[in-house]
Amino acid sequence: MIKLYGIPNCDTMKKARSWLKDHGIDFEFHDYKKAGIDEATLRGWIDQVGWEPLLNRRGMMWRKVPQQIKDSIDRDSAIALMLETPSIIKRPVLDTGDAIHVGFKPEQYEAIFK
User: Among this protein's residues, is 39 annotated catalytic?
Assistant: First the structure.
């Protein structure tokens, strides 16, 4: 089963969910706000794509992070931060069962599901 991770009110999430529905692709939605993210799943993603693509440094949650943490961010502190504040994970994260994909662009999804 394809799984889409994120938060429901994010514009990019809305676009990704609409794209999947419009293309008849069944998926399960995992809401970080309600269900969080477990450490094993997060570490599995990091093993596949690295921690840096998963850390959303453009969003409001990143702006709230104390500067000393931003200045010294590394793999371990990024993991702790993402577990504590899952909405700081870049959205969406798409798990196709074969691979993890971060972010959404229509052409990216076209390539994934061709």
Answer: no
DSSP state letters, 79-103: HHHHHH-GGGB-S-EEE-SS-EEES
- pLDDT one-digit tens code per residue, 40-88: 999 999 999 999 999 999 989 999 999 999 999 999 999 999 999 999 9
Give the global pTM.
Answer: 0.92
Identified catalytic residue from 4, 10, 46, 54? 10
Query: What does the alpha-carbon distance between residue 94 and residue 102 come to, in Å, rounded to a whole number?
Result: 6
Residue ranges covered by each domain of the chain: 3-112
Fold of the domain built from segment(s) 3-112: Glutaredoxin (3.40.30)
